[in-house]
Structure formats: C-alpha cells, structure tokens
Amino acid sequence: MSSVPNPSFEAGEAALQAGDYDRAIAQFNGVCETELDENLVTRAQQALIVAYCRCGRAEDAIALCHDLVQISTGKTWATKALEDLIQRYPEANTRSLIAKKAAPKTRRRKPPLEKRPIRPDTPNIAQSLVPSADTAPQEAAPTVFVPGRLWRNADRATKWKRLKAPKLWKLWALQILSAIALFWVVRLSLEGFMLGVNTLLESLPFLQPIPFFYRSLGYSPIWVLILCAIASPWILDLLLKQCYGVQPFSIPKLAAQFPEASKVVQKMTRQKKMPFPKLRLLPTNAPICFTYGNLPRTARLVLSEGLLEQLEDEELAVLIATQIAQIIHRDFIWMSGAMTFLQLPFTLYWYIANWGEKLRARSPQKPSWAFLRPLIHWTSTILASLLYAAYWLWRLPLLWFSRQRLYYSDRLAAEYMGNPNALSRALLKTAIGMASEIHQQHRTSALLEGFDLLMPVGHRQALSLGSMPHKTPFSEVLTWECTNPYRHWLALANSHPLIGDRVYLLNRYANYWGLPPEIDLPTIVPPARSLKEKTIKLKNSYQALPILQSAFLSALFFGLLFRGIFWLAGILNDLVVSRWVGGSGVIWMYNANNIAIAQSCILFAFSLSIIVWINGYFPNIRISQKRNEPRLQDLLSDPKAVPPKSFGIRLTGKLIGRERIRNGVLQDLMLQTETGTIKLHFFTKLGPFGNLFWGLQTPLFWIRRWFRWRQLEAFFDRYIPLYPRPDELRDLEEPLCDREVTVTGWFRRGSTPWIDVDTLSTADKQIVRSGYPVWVTGLAIVAAIWGAVLMWRA
Fold first, then answer.
1. What is the DSSP pairing of strand 740-748 with strand 676-681?
2. Which residues pair with 504 in a beta bridge?
3. Which residues contact 675 (CB under 8 A, 6 or more apart)?
4. pLDDT given at position 433
5. Burial of 214 by CB count in 10 Å (0-12 exposed, 13-18 middle, 19+ buried)?
6. Which of 396, 289, 385, 398 is nearest to 346 (CA)?
7. Is pTM, for the whole model, over 0.70?
8. What would the pLDDT profile of 559-610 be if each residue is shown by its tens digit?
9. Adjacent-strand bridge partners of 281
10. More confident residue, 37 or 346
11. DSSP state, residue 686
12. What is residue 722's predicted lDDT score, i.e. its pLDDT?
C-alpha cells in the first residue's frame, strides 16, 4: 500500500517544481503502486527518476531503471535513461550494484488487479483497459536532466562515412553578392534621406537646406564597411563588454563541466592548423552562441550562461562545432564586419530610446515646463524610429547569405561529430530557451535582436515554437516547415533557415549513417525544379503570399504587360490608323515617356490588385467555438495554411513587449497565452507612420491634462481625437504591457506565425482598435492617384 492516502501525479509534479523532492517521491511512488493507467504509471516512473537525481539519490534512480529494464517490456526509454545515468553518475552506479548484491533476492511485483486498491476517482476498470491512441505509453527515451519535455536522445554514430563535399564557391559568391547589395542599399537610402531632409528644409520658412546633403556619397560606404570588417573583433569586444557585461572564459573552465565540448574546440582547430578562438561568457539566461572576428587568429567564440545550463555536453559540443565550421569556411569574417556596421544604427536606437525615457521621467512636472516633456518625447521617438528602420533596411541584403551559411555549418558539424541528432536537440533547446528568456523579460532584449544574424537560431522563429507546452510534439508543429510548398518564399525576410528544414536535413544525415532520427518528420516537399513547375508556382503565388507582396508581384507583371499593350497600340495607330483614317488617335501611347507610363501602369495594377483581394484577405470576423481561445499547437499544425487563408480568432493572454519610445512603431508586440506566445501586428489607419504618430501624440495627453482650458479641450475632442496605444493607457502613464488583454484578429500562418490585430481590449473595457484594412485600402487609393498624375504628366 502507498504511504500517501490519495497519491496524485499532479500533486507530485507540483511538488517537483517547487523543490519538495521528498513529497514528490512519495506521490510518484504512490501513483506507481495504485494507478491502473499504464501511461500515467510510465510518466510517474520517469518523474520519479528526475526527483531522485535532483535530491542526490542517483543510486536509487539507477536501481529503479535496473528494475524497469528487467521486469518491464516495451519500455525502451528505461534502457536509454539507465545508460545516461551510468555515464553521468559512475560512482552512484557502483554503490547501487553493491547495495543490490547485499539485498535479499526478492522480486517486487505488482499486486493483481482485483487486490490493488482503487482510488475514488478511478474510472471503470474495463474502460481503463481498452487501448486507445491517447493512452499509449510513450516510447521516446527521455532525458532525466531536462524537466518537462521528453527527448528521444537518439544515438550517435560510432563509424560513419564522409558526406559529399559541398560547393563552397557558392557560399563565397553569396558573400560577394550580399556585400554589393549592402553597399547600394546603404548608399541609396542615405542619399534619399539627405535629399528628403533638404526638400523639407526648402519648404519651411527661415530655414536653408544643407549643402553637404546634395553631394553624392560615392564609394564612401565601401570604405566604412571595410573599416568595420577590419576592426570588428575589437569593436564588438568593447560593445559586448560595455553593454552586455561579457567576461573572459577559458578552455580549462569549459573542460571542467563539458569535456567533449572543450575537446571539439581543440581538435577541430588543430586539424585545420588554426589557433584556438578566444572564449567569452555572457551573463544571461538566454542560450546564446556565436562567433566573430576578422581572421581565424582573432576569432572569438561567445557562449552564455543560459546555454551552458540548458544543453548537455554532446549537444553543446556539436553546437560549438557549427561555430568552428564558420571559422573554417571563413564566412564569419564578412558577417562580423556587416554586424559591426549594423550595430551603429541599432545601438544608437537603443541608447536614444533609453535616454529619452530617462529625461522624460526627470523633466519637471510644472505647467510652465509643459513643453519640455513633449519635446523630449517627440525628438527621441523620431530619432530612435529612424535608426531602427535603418537597421532593418540595411540587414535585408544579408538575409539570404545568413540563411545559407547555416546549412554549410550544420553539415560540417554533423559530419565531424557524427551526431546530427544532438544538433537537432541543441537547436530546439535553444529555441525553447530563447522563448523562455522573452517570457521572463516580458520583451525582446537588445542582445537577442541586435546580434540576431550571428546566432544559430533566430528569436522570432523561436518565439512560438519554443513557448508551447512541453508535451507538444515537435513533429506536428514542424510539419508546415517541411511540406508547405511556399515555405521558402514566406521565409525570404527571415534571418535563419526554417528549423524544420534544418532538422529534416539532420535526419537525412542520421539515416545515411544508419541512425534513428531524433524527431520523425514527414517527407519534405522539394522546391520547384522545372520551368513549368516554377511558372505554376509563380502564377498561384497570390494565394500564398501576404497581400502587399502579392500586389507587388502582380503589379510588376500586369503593369509591364499593359505598358507593352499600350506601346503596340501606339505603333499600330502610327503605322495603320493615322495613314488610312487620319488623326493621331492614341499615338501618344507610343511617343510618351516610356518610364513614366510604365510606372503609372505598375501603380494602377498595384491598386487594382489590392482592391480585388482585400475582402478575401480581411474576411468578416466571426468567432466560432473552435476559434475562441484555440491552442497554439492546433493553429500551427495545418501544413497547407498560408497568410491569405486566414480566419478570425479570439485569444486572451498577457500583452508583452517593449514600451513607449523603444517600441515607437509597435515592432515588439506579443501575446503570451497558456498554450504559447504569438507575434502581434498592429497598424493604425496610417500604417507604420500612424504607429509613429500615435507615439508622438501621447505628449498631447500631458498638455491637455496640465492646461485644462475648455476651448483647448473642445479643440482636441473635435480635431485631434486621442486614442491609447496598445502599450499605453489613456489619461494614465501606466503601461498596458504585462496586463491581461483579449485580442481579436486574423491569424496568419507564415514562417513566423502572427495575428493581424483588429481589436485589443482590457478587463476594464478599454478597447484599442486597429486600422490595418483601412491602411491597405489607403495605399491602393494613393497608388491610383499617383499613377494618374504620372500618366497625365507623360
């Protein structure tokens, strides 16, 4: 009989999480003795092993695994857990064997069913013995060192063949193309910004344009990029030390806890005759690992405390091998220089936003100083938003190269270690750790976003995947990333490859070496190969891409097509109609400015495409019972889902993200629910420009509150209606973030799932309504008017 009156697995799990291991052990032992559900018994046995290990009773955990291996059938996880325990606790294994030999030869058996005590809440025995899909015991071998989720811990290869050598010239060609693209993007964006500033200054009274802004930048951005690449190790050293508190680390310290990981660093570098990279340690709970430098001898390998806590030795070793592979391929040189350059706008954005918040808080509260807070708020918000936009614009040319280089490093690391399954676990655990860090901080940290291109996993792709409950099978939520035919098109704006794609390739390596994969994934759908397949895919792209991207592709095709038709009509009129009938007719279509006419046709096609598709992209929101508080796992499991095939949902959770100036255009807004976290897209009726203006209008609340003149209040109510932002409350400077809200909107499934917010309401009935459909419609109207003006001037 159990020593606990009413043993419960839930009570034991709660005690385990609270650190009350004696109570947890008692509860789990009671469940094992009295429970009839074999699935629940298996879970209790697994949790019991975890509790034994945490309270220092590793020999009891080993003894339990020995018993399960000897007397149980079909529990392959026990064999794997026993191997892990023996490897990790060799002394405890010796003590367990000695105690087992000294103990009397008795075999512990379960009492017959009719003699086992029945709990009051136990269901009918005949029903409990009926096999079903949801009561089948788990066959995956769990790790006893990671709480919550069960890992298969698939084997590694002992002898393996080498893979076919990759074509590294493609990687080098991508580096050259990304460097050229980055130069032109930086140059054109800066020259456009300077021209816009001078145009604005010319239109304002008492101000003169800046003569320097009329000059061409020439090749100066190239020299800045070269300088950043040369000085990247020392600039990033200083930045990481001053802003994030990075500390020196050493191989002996790494070897004390992770011997295999330290051996990987030494062996891989010695084989390639390279010096050891200098190790650095970041004091953060986020699992972070990246490499930077301008040469192999100046390379730095950065690890975080969270990474060392969340990964096992073999997982950390193979993840480090991916970073050493980037040094071997030399692709880390260009990426380090580009990242150093990108730190200029991003670091300035972060510091200006923090500076603005501090000055705003310290500014006097007297009415005579009422202008000071709005001035500080407006100035810092505009500058921070412009710098953040520059950061995101300048990183676009690097995205393709950033995605491709990770495939090369994954391949070399898996081949060198012979352990692709450990790399699969490392990537998934890194995603889980990043999502957990975002939950704890209630926002995306500057470190996760600023160094995103250097990390093995992106924080955006980790947000939903890593935040789901531990019992969610990865095989279900990763199916979309393997089978959706438009997954690569929808990932063009991603900084990292799809995790499903990477895990599938690692499974292929495991199968090649005769290993069972860590995660069972469906057969991948290959990209279109033939011209016919590519044409069909492009033809149907409007059914898969977001509305603005689809409208852009449609505008290019139909706009140029219409321009060609007009051109032919003008020629026919000139050659045929004007000679036989007389008159110029439509000859202007032939003689007009070709560029202006082509631009106007493209704008007309863009406008018409949006008008045709907008109703289907934003359907009426009807919340059925299935769409009211759905699980995130169910939303992500549909392999055929694409952004245009959306539906209305309602979710309740905690709103998290950056606040006020740091979130000037609402770029960091998320909803944390019980089943996971999902990204929120919120646009006003003026789109991102309206989000920025919405942030600028917040100081008007302060002016209205300090100067309570009736005429001024009437003016505000009539001409400048003020509404709260999603991260602020009206008339109060209390942030809405970290509060329970209900979000209604359109769910979109892309490489990063998100919700286009329609309404956001709080418990006290404060409602914030977005204007995304109005913003898209406004774009169509502006494009049509602009096209008409160009057509008239042509």
1. unpaired
2. none
3. 468, 469, 631, 632, 633
4. 93
5. exposed
6. 385
7. yes
8. 888 777 777 766 666 666 555 555 555 545 555 556 777 888 889 999 999 9
9. 247, 303
10. 346
11. T
12. 43
- Report residue 568 as tokens: 């032919």
Write out 564-599 in H/E/C secondary structure.
HHHHHHHHHHHHHHHHHCCCCCCCHHHHCCHHHHHH
Residue 172 host element (H or E): helix 168-203
Which residue has tokens 């150093």? 340
More confident residue, 103 or 777: 777
pLDDT digits (tens, 9 = 90+) for 635-658: 898 888 999 988 899 999 999 988
Cβ atoms of 410 and 506 closer than 8 Å: yes
Strands 754-762 and 676-681, bridge-based pairing: parallel
Q: How far apart are the first and last CA of the chain?
A: 93
**Can you give the pLDDT at residue 133?**
33
| Helices (H) then strands (E): counts for the chain | 32, 10
- Residue 767, beta-bridge partner list: 761
Q: What are phi and psi of 655, to 5 degrees?
A: -80, 125
Query: What pLDDT does residue 285 have?
Result: 92
- Percentage of residues in the chain with pLDDT exceeding 70? 80
Token pair, residue 352, equals 């200006």
Contact 376, 356 (CB under 8 A): yes
Length of the chain: 794
Q: Which of 274, 270, 291, 237 is nearest to 405 (CA)?
A: 291
Amino acid 561 reads: L
- The percent helix, strand, coil of the chain (3-state, each to 5) is 60, 10, 30
Cβ contact 291:331 at 8 Å: no
Backbone phi and psi for residue 628, each to the nearest 5 degrees, phi listed first: -95, 115
In 3D space, the residue among 506, 498, 452, 153 whose CA is nearest the CA of residue 289 turns out to be 452
Hey, what are 19's tokens? 């650190």
8 A C-beta contact, residue 501 and residue 481: yes
Mean pLDDT of 167-173: 92
Which helix (H) or strand (E) covers residue 278, if one does? strand 278-282
DSSP-derived secondary structure for 141-162: PPPSSSSSS--------SS-PP
d(CA 395, CA 495): 9
Q: Rounded CA gap, 614 and 629, in Å?
A: 26
C-beta of residue 759 within 8 angstroms of C-beta of residue 744: yes
Q: Calculate what percentage of the chain has a pLDDT beyond 90.
A: 39
- Asked if residue 334 lies in contact with residue 178, where contact means CB atoms within 8 angstroms, the answer is yes
Tell me the per-residue pLDDT of 57-77, one tens digit each, with 9 for 90 and over: 888 888 888 888 776 555 677
